[in-house]
């Protein structure tokens, strides 16, 4: 993922294009010899996760970070729903689907109280309070009606679920923007349906970058020029026709990098409740530590393999323009966090971090009859693609008796149903003997960009695991060689992580 000259030029060209929308606010900075040089103000996109806007005091902290940044730079904030809100909204939607509109209404009421409490604590100006309360009432009213409609029909379409689950961001953004104004900095809440254009895949929509770029530039650039800090709802977008979509759970990170790329930002900062990317999950590995610099590739690999700091798609939008992404702790903003860059920092070969994914299911399609059935592989994976199940790992034994692969447990049922349908004939004629499912497994991945050309890492890993009697169910090494992953019993995850962490000296290595 090295970025050569052409990408650099592309970025410069994109910046030129950005000029069409008018110059960025200029600041003067004196340089050596007393000469004054006009420099473009930097543009930062800052995303605040659910815990970073979890209550009034967290929002106040986020506001301070935005205000400090906006003193020197252009700043676009992207906010998640207050923590726990999206889960509760989804619960309410599911309750409504069973016809229970009472419980759904109770959730909406609880949300009203939660946001009202934050509002009264953050906003002292009466008029402003009334205005925001009105806005929140509109959004909550929409929520109530959506739940009532769902309860009436006892049907929850993906489109309605998106509309309901997006309410949290639509409530938090006006609140945060008001708190920024209260702090004396002009700010405006913006719904990302005005900015991010996506396809119509509800629950996991993909952005259309060129259209997103046009809309975002047209809407946000004028605000930035006037020194107004936009506060944008994370998680959501809209189709070209204006139908609201969501980018998938945890998608606000993705929103931030989509906007970072669309706006030619200089950096994207993901403010969260941990210190950055760690060598392993600290709840499982006591000696885990923060990694100061890591490459896109390593971070993407870790995100993909379940290190929960980043939504797996987060880095896709910024790769081409080589925009650095920081992960920082909004509760300890003096700490430097982790910087994710195109190149990362070489540690001369070796393992940088470990990660584990637990909520996964092993599906296998097989039986002796599949030997010589050339299309089984193809049909298996076109089926997973059709149901948009994210395949995390694939392994096929060379005897071809069995194809096994791993998907997230949430995707497992629909994947298996689709496979049973696809192979119905073959199952009936015993060409395919079984499609089996095992959800008591986990994946552990050993990640490091410079593992390429460093022999023996797989050997050391598996030796160490063998010593600790960790049984390997399947193994895969990507051809990129920045990841070796293996499937083990869920119960062995902690042992496996601690063993590998120690084996590669991750508590001490100067990465
Ligand atoms: N609020 C959404 C979720 O909980 C998006 C996010 O927080 O990133 O999934
Ligand atoms: Mg998140």
Summarize this structure briefly:
It contains 16 helices and 18 strands. The chain is of the alpha/beta class.
Protein architecture, described:
By secondary structure, this protein is of the alpha/beta class. It folds into two domains: 43-273, Acetylglutamate kinase-like (Carbamate kinase, 3-Layer(aba) Sandwich); 353-503, VC0802-like. Helices cover 41% and strands 21% of the residues. The protein is built from 16 helices and 18 strands. The protein has helices at 5-19, 56-72, 85-97, 101-122, 126-153, 158-165, 167-182, 209-225, 252-262, 296-304, 316-319, 376-386, 409-422, 424-428, 457-467, 493-503, and strands at 26-30, 36-40, 43-48, 74-79, 187-190, 229-233, 236-238, 244-246, 267-272, 293-295, 325-329, 338-341, 353-366, 391-396, 402-408, 434-447, 472-477, 483-489. The strands form four sheets. It has an eight-stranded mixed beta sheet with strand order 5-6-4-3-9-11-12-10, sandwiched between helices. Strands 14-15-13-16-18-17 form a six-stranded antiparallel beta sheet. A hairpin with a 5-residue loop joins β1 (26-30) and β2. α3 (85-97) packs antiparallel against α4 (101-122) and α8 (209-225) packs across α9 (252-262). The longest helix has 28 residues, at 126-153. The protein is globular. 47% of the residues are buried. The site of magnesium ion (MG) has 2 residues, from loops. Residues 49, 250 line the site of magnesium ion.
